[in-house]
Amino acid sequence: MKKSILIKLVIAMLCMCLIAGTFAGCSGNNKQPETTSESAEELAAFENIDPKELAELTNCYDPEADTDLDAARSNNNEAPIAGTIISGQDITFTNSSLVEYTRLSPNKTIHRNHKIDTITIHYMAGKLTVEACGNVFSESKANASSNYGVDDDGRIALYVQEWDRSWCSSNADNDHRAVTIEVASDSSHPYTVSDKAYNTTIKLVADICKRNEIEKLVWSDDKEARIKHLDGANMTVHSDFADTDCPGEYLYSRMGDIAKQVNSILEETKGQTVTGRKCSEEKQFEEYLVKITKTTNVRRNPGLKGSFVMKVNKNEVYTIVDERTVDNIKWGKLKNGKGWINLADTQKK
Ligand SMILES: [Zn+2]
To answer: I want to staple 298 with a disulfide (CB 3.0 to 4.6 A). Which of 17, 25, 95, 339 is the partner?
Structure first.
C-alpha cells in the first residue's frame, strides 16, 4: 500500500481539514480549531521534522465528551487522590519505573474515567528521539500526546501519566481506558521498527500489564472484536478509529507476537510485585537564572532557523523556564516570553 509522498501529504492535509471540521462540529460552538495544517507545518519546521512524519503525531485528539479543546488541555500533573473510584474500583495509579525521560504534555484530559484495561501501540512514522517526540507533544498546537514513547535506541519516555487520558488514538473512549505508546519507526511502508525499540516495547507493555492487573494480553485480527473488547481482546490500534496507516504493517502484523511475548513475561513473573513510580517522583522543569556571557540573539523558536527577535547583552541576567536541543545546540526559553537563546552564550548563576 505504498503511496507517493505527494499523495500522502495531500491525504494528510485533507484529514486535517476533516478533523478540523469535526472539532468545530463537536465542540458545539463555532470556534475554529487551533490547529491547521499551516501550524502543523510551522511546528515541523521548528522541530526540524518532515511534515509528513509530523502529520502522524498531531491532531490525535477526539473532542467527544469534552466541551472545549483549551478547557480540556491541562498542566495539572497531580495524581487522583487516594481512594478515587474509577470504573467502580479503588485504583492506585503509578507510572513505569522503566522510564528514562519525562516531559509531561499539556495535551491530555485529567483524569481517566476508566480503569486501564487496554494497550494501544502506535508508530511515530519517523525515528524521533524521545526528546523530539516530547517537544512535539509539549506544544499545545500539536493537539496530540501519548502516555509513553519508545525511540529507536529503545529509550522510554513518559509524556502523559497513566492516570490521565492521552490524546493519541483519535477516540476518547479508547484513550480513557488504554495506555498509549508511540514507537519510533521508519517513515514509510512497512514502517519497520528496530529490534531495540520492539523489545523495549514488549518489556514496557509487560510492566504496564503487571501494575494494572491485566493478567493476559489478547490480540484479535478482527476489528470489531478489538473495538468491542470481545473474547477478552484488549489491544487496539489507531486505524480502528481513524483513517490512518498507524501502527503500520510491521507492528500490526506483530501484535500477536507482542501479546505472546508479553504473556510469557507475565507468566514467568507471576506472584512478583512490580513497583511503579508515584506522581511526586516525576520531575518538572525547574527554572534557573543565567548571566549572558556574550551578546546573543533571541529567537522566536529554538534553533538557528528561529526568526530574530532582539539581542540580549553581556552581563544581563535572565530566567530560563524551558530547554530544547535543536541540531546539537541547547536553547533556553526566556521567562519574559521574548523567545529563546543559545545557552552556550550564558553561564548558569
Ligand atoms: Zn497513531
So the answer is: 339
